[in-house]
Design a protein that fits this description.
- The complex is a heterodimer of chains A (248) and B (324).
- Chain A is an alpha/beta fold and 248 residues long.
- Chain A contains six helices and 13 strands.
- Chain A has helices at 37-53, 67-77, 93-107, 126-134, 187-195, 234-244; strands spanning 2-6, 9-11, 33-35, 56-63, 81-86, 111-115, 137-147, 151-158, 161-168, 171-175, 198-201, 210-216, 225-228.
- In chain A, the strands form two sheets. Chain A has a nine-stranded mixed beta sheet with strand order 9-8-7-10-6-1-4-5-11, sandwiched between helices. A two-stranded antiparallel sheet of chain A has the order 2-3.
- Chain A is globular, with a radius of gyration of 21 Å.
- By secondary structure, chain B is of the alpha/beta class.
- Chain B has two domains: 2-184, 3-Layer(aba) Sandwich (Rossmann fold), CATH 3.40.50.620; 205-322, Rossmann fold.
- In chain B, the strands form four sheets. In chain B, strands 7-11-6-1-4-5-12 form a seven-stranded parallel beta sheet, sandwiched between helices.
- The radius of gyration of chain B is 21 Å and the shape is elongated.
- The N and C termini of chain B lie far apart (51 Å).
- The chains are: A alpha/beta (248), B alpha/beta (324).
- Chains A and B meet through helix 3, helix 4, strand 7, strand 8 and strand 9 of A and helix 3, helix 4, strand 7, strand 9 and strand 10 of B.
- Strand 13 (225-228) of chain A pairs parallel with strand 18 of chain B, so a sheet runs across the interface.
Chain lengths: 248, 324
């Protein structure tokens, strides 16, 4: 089974976000980056598929040189090969999707895995874009995966339950928390990853279809009203919710 | 030019987001001088399609096929793209639900259309639609415009209003789209429904518990309060990671994003990852014994107190007020 896992390098969840001087991007100074958390489930799923069916695993990331750090993490966890589509310029999701699809299509994989969302822009567009461009089936937000040679039976999270989906290979899967417990890289894995080569290629450029008009800090919220400091405040809180906020 | 509104239904019942999306389309249509067409896809939907008229759909198109009873990403995308081409739609609105988020990029790729995802506001400036939403877990806001001829927007559920107007004129038309077996390469075969309380992404009231609940055995306090309010139970990442609650209740950057009208955070300190998932709630109430907890900075109302005393009192008061 030929397995590709697409991963992203994102500001860590504790990062303080400042708007850049252009008013359209963030100020990258002083920000620590990490592998997008959902991508760990995708890497783990890729490794388990390889363990079950044999074959090969490849991690792909599109971005600047710093993305090598995230690719090395995938290698350390056990992915065999890594490819950096090196491009630091801002791209919209459509353009990233087309560039990834271009590379992926040429490799003719059986399975392409993504994390459910990249936690920077969280638009959840790439799995569907890539699936459509490479002509694959897809299942997003997968929490359970029963993999067979020709088709996967997945459970995907929907509002108030799970949808059981059968997908014929080739398939694009996006992984949700709960699918698996990602393994920790072994010391041997970490040492080995340092010396493994990361292939680099320039991705194709595409016109952007979504233009950023402005980026801003969210409006500061007014600090609210402290209704009381013990259980006796419950009655007043209920009155406020009922009469002032009118939410109950 | 026309605006297409995808009205999501499951099991022959519209999702609330179907009305929100239709009404948002109606508003945009008014501002841009565009006709609004609602599209309903499923097995047996002609009976409910007319409900969309009250939310502003002049024309309602239904595509019925027994094979469309359960959702299929490939077949649904083909159907909607085909209708969009036939109708020469310039704008397509979908809910940012599990179905809409799954469909939007496939439609984008099929129609060479840019997608503005998970919008929390749409504004018209000249002939442009400017869409806004939070990014970086709510630490920043972004405004975008789609520059392709066909523009797709997904709207965050519970944010846009849906208020019916009786007596609006509308017509329902049945359409057909040819579907081959190959169009169902991914297809749902069943749905496992979680029994009981509503899902956090759809609930208008959420009662969430965090570390301050001190253990899974105390979550009955949260559940009882949620049940009195007819609301959903939510959880912070810490308690999900600790195995106290299932991950489908997790609210936050690595959980679900919610916008209920009332969000009660109980024993939740308000880590930035949590706030990311719930800051667009209309009214936020915090109960926490630490007066310096960051949750109080975004709460509309707060009680600085012990959850084990405050929650039972709150439940009792609500029962009185709501007559239960």
């Amino acid at each position: 089974m030929k397995i590709i896992v697409c991963i992203n390098h994102v500001p860590d969840t504790e990062a303080k976000i400042k708007i850049g001087a252009d008013g359209r991007t963030i100020d990258k100074a002083g920000i620590n980056y990490m592998l997008s958390p959902y991508d760990e489930f995708a890497i783990e799923a890729a490794l388990r598929l390889k363990e079950k069916f044999g074959g090969e695993t490849l991690a792909i990331s599109l971005g600047g040189d710093v993305h090598k750090e995230t690719l090395r993490k995938a290698l350390a966890m056990g992915v065999e090969k890594a490819l950096l589509l090196k491009d630091d310029s801002p791209r919209d999701s459509d353009s990233i999707g087309r560039a990834l699809a271009e590379e992926i299509k040429a490799l003719a994989p059986d399975v392409v895995l993504f994390g459910k969302q990249s936690i920077d822009y969280s638009d959840e567009l790439l799995p569907g874009l890539v699936a459509e461009h490479i002509g694959a089936s897809s299942v997003t937000c997968v929490v359970k995966l029963d993999a067979q040679e020709k088709s996967f039976v997945c459970e995907r999270e929907i509002e108030g339950g799970h949808e059981v989906v059968t997908a014929i290979l080739p398939v694009v899967i996006s992984t949700q928390k709960g699918l698996n417990e990602p393994r920790y890289p072994s010391l041997k894995g970490i040492m080995g990853a340092k010396s493994k080569p990361i292939e680099e290629r320039q991705p194709k450029a595409f016109d952007s279809l979504v233009e950023v008009v402005a980026m801003s800090k969210p409006p500061a919220k007014q600090a609210g009203k402290i209704v009381g400091t013990d259980a006796s405040a419950a009655a007043e809180l209920v009155r406020l919710l009922h009469e002032e906020a009118k939410v109950i | 030019m026309k605006i297409l509104a995808f009205a999501e239904q499951r099991e022959g019942k519209f999702k609330k987001s179907a009305f929100e999306v239709t009404q948002a389309a109606k508003k945009l249509g008014g501002q841009l001088g565009m006709e609004v067409i609602a599209v309903v896809v499923g097995d047996s939907v002609s009976g409910i399609a007319g409900e969309l008229g009250a939310y502003g759909a002049g024309r309602i198109l239904t595509v019925q096929d027994p094979r469309l009873h359960f959702y299929s990403t490939t077949a649904y995308a083909k159907v909607i793209a085909e209708i969009a081409r036939r109708e020469n739609a310039g704008v397509i609105l979908l809910p940012a639900s599990q179905m809409g988020k799954d469909l939007a990029p496939r439609l984008g790729a099929k129609l060479n259309a840019g997608v503005a995802a998970d919008c929390t506001a749409l504004a018209v400036g000249g002939s442009d639609i400017v869409a806004s939403r939070p990014i970086y877990a709510g630490k920043a806001m972004i405004s975008v415009k789609v520059t392709s001829p066909v523009k797709i927007f997904t709207l965050r559920p519970n944010v846009f209003t849906a208020s019916p107007v009786n007596g609006a004129a509308s017509s329902v038309e049945a359409c057909t789209v040819d579907l081959a077996d190959a169009d169902f390469s991914a297809k749902a075969t069943s749905v496992k429904v979680a029994e009981g309380r509503p899902d956090v992404t759809e609930a208008s009231i959420i009662v969430s518990g965090g570390r301050g609940m001190k253990g899974p055995e105390h979550f009955h306090l949260i559940e009882t309060l949620a049940d009195v309010l007819g609301g959903a139970v939510g959880a912070s990442r810490a308690v999900v990671d600790a195995g106290w609650r299932p991950h489908d209740e997790q609210v936050g950057q690595t959980g679900k994003t919610v916008s209920p009208s009332l969000y009660l955070a109980c024993g939740i300190s308000g880590a930035v990852q949590h706030i990311a998932g719930m800051s667009s709630s209309k009214c936020i109430v915090a109960v926490n014994k630490d007066k310096d907890a960051p949750i109080f900075q975004i709460a509309d109302y707060g009680i600085v107190g012990d959850v084990f005393e405050v929650l039972p009192a709150l439940t009792a008061e609500l029962k009185k007020t709501l007559g239960k």
